[in-house]
């Protein structure tokens, strides 16, 4: 079987490049080999950045391609074997059906108020002339939001402890390429004591598990049909066979929502504040749009065109997720001129697709206006992936980005302190800024805050 061309360096060298500098590695391969190429990691992996090919892949999840879970086992140490990310087939379909309802409909109004309230609480502690690490602030906001949405827990001792341990665990997970390398090589996942990286992770994971299982047990002993948090909804939900989720399934889905639901959005918000304040014209236009609002309510904020464009451009230029989830070729297929045989594994490169000059002119420039002048297809702009593996929390994430940005911009005048250009780097299995982004609080504004009046 002839795979698309790719680097001829030894697999271990390619793995080290992939772990240490994945964006540079992909860009270098794209320059050499074009829209489709093969890299050698633990196995051959075909990367694609052509929108037509991506459409072919993501719309054929049940035909020519499958969305298996075996290559998602990298996430298992944290998320477990029953997470929406680590299961496939009918199990994945069942879990997705159970998890989707809490992220749609009227509940979004409740989330909107929660997001606004928590954002205001965090920024109330800021002082004029204070320097704020914007990523730390956004992590605090997004973790508290997801804690409230998932558990309905806020300011309780268990919530505070869970928030503390998860925050430490997520920060440590993205702190060095070595930790990412351990995920790719299970042989490195050895508990050599509490002071070693893997040993530390296992002990923190056990602390998180204990807190979550205790909460589940208490809910089962004292059910409250009035509660509308995601845990309560999941505990009450049954699949088409009338079966509820087990404690282990609940734990795995909750940790998935807690980890994926705050770290990624915090990163996107950090980039948004960076670009808004690095690009004066963007800041001016956004403030003008926000100042023009008659009512700072959920519907009004959600429909603001320039705010939406800023969020989209933030997710385009440095996407938090570099790749789609992997697909496996099930039937012989031609992709970008290559005949691929069953058993071939393919991933869409979101990062490369978002930087295509034939789609995004001056792709390295931050320009929200591109999203006002044109609508991009789901295969040209895909920050949340696509097909059956598209992120179920995408609407929640976009809502959170818009409300946090609108609330902070209306209430606080910030100035970028970090002078160096900030670039993306690997953080665990996703990406983030390569340095702290610090901002100075120049002043506080009086403004109407978000309401959910309709």
CATH fold naming: Cytochrome p450
Distance between the termini: 59 Å
What structural class is derived from the secondary structure elements? Answer: alpha+beta
Number of strands: 12
Strand order of the largest sheet: 1-2-8-5-3
Q: Could you name the CATH class?
A: Mainly Alpha
Discrete helix count:
18
| CATH-defined architecture | Orthogonal Bundle
Main sheet record: 5 strands, mixed
Would you tell me the overall average pLDDT?
88
Radius of gyration: 22 Å
From the structure above, extract its key features.
globular; single chain; alpha+beta; five-stranded mixed beta sheet; Cytochrome p450; 454 residues
Q: Can you tell me about this structure?
A:
This protein is an alpha+beta fold and about 450 residues long. The chain has one domain: Cytochrome P450 (Cytochrome p450, Orthogonal Bundle). Strands 1-2-8-5-3 form a five-stranded mixed beta sheet. Strands 4-12-9 form a three-stranded antiparallel beta sheet. α12 crosses α15. It starts with 10 loop residues before the first helix and ends in a 10-residue tail after the last strand. About 40% of the residues are buried.
